[in-house]
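Researcher: Please predict.
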Amino acid sequence: MNAMTGSSKSGADDVLRVTIDGRIAHLAFNRPAKRNAINDATLAALDAFFSNVPQCVRAIVLSGEGGHFSAGLDLSEQSEREASEVLRHSRGWHAIMDKIQLSGVPVVSVLTGAVMGGGLEIASATHVRVAEPSAKFQLPEGKRGIFVGGGATVRVGRIIGPDRMTEMMLTGRLYTAEEGERLGLAHYLVGEGDGLAKAFALANDIADNASLVNYLIIQSIARINDMSRADGLYAESLSAALSQTGADAKEGLMAFLEKRKPNFR
């Protein structure tokens, strides 16, 4: 994996290709023969990148090679694990999903083909989701005799609701791209092959925001959702106080008054 400043690309054999061009990093799952099933090496690569996002990166695009985002957990690595090992592995997933969601850098995902099981869990940790017509959303674990372990009960359940997630797991129901967009599993539905272009356009637009405001949006909203009403409102006030002081706030106000695009740090 390569995370150098400037334009760079990792080797073709890497399970996670990383390209950085200016302010935007592009991460691509690179196990097309396995429909980008997530193995331990892929998790380690995600962990390494999101544990130390380069300072130059203001937004991230996450996609999958070979027509699929990810078909989920690579079950070939799970068959011999004891219960205690599965528990630790699941908690490791949770930690990495938290890093994706809460690194402070916005992540735009491009959802194509299989967005299933662990793939949907990863997608639900991203902040903006763009789906192409080929995208298929599914939580097939119930039909495989296992339970989700990468955070779906929290993230997917909050997106579509616990009632619908229960039905989705009991029946193995598969949602189309159009249905997924309607439910909130995707925010944008674009034409076939247009996902990356849309994602990069969104990422560049998001990168134009004040970095502190992007950080607060990512950190505060997720945590306020877990708070009581009174605590949430107080946390909102703290976030507002942090954002409305300093150079970026002054630049935003001046840009509005001068009818120009702001130039944040």
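Model: The two ends are 28 Å apart (CA to CA).
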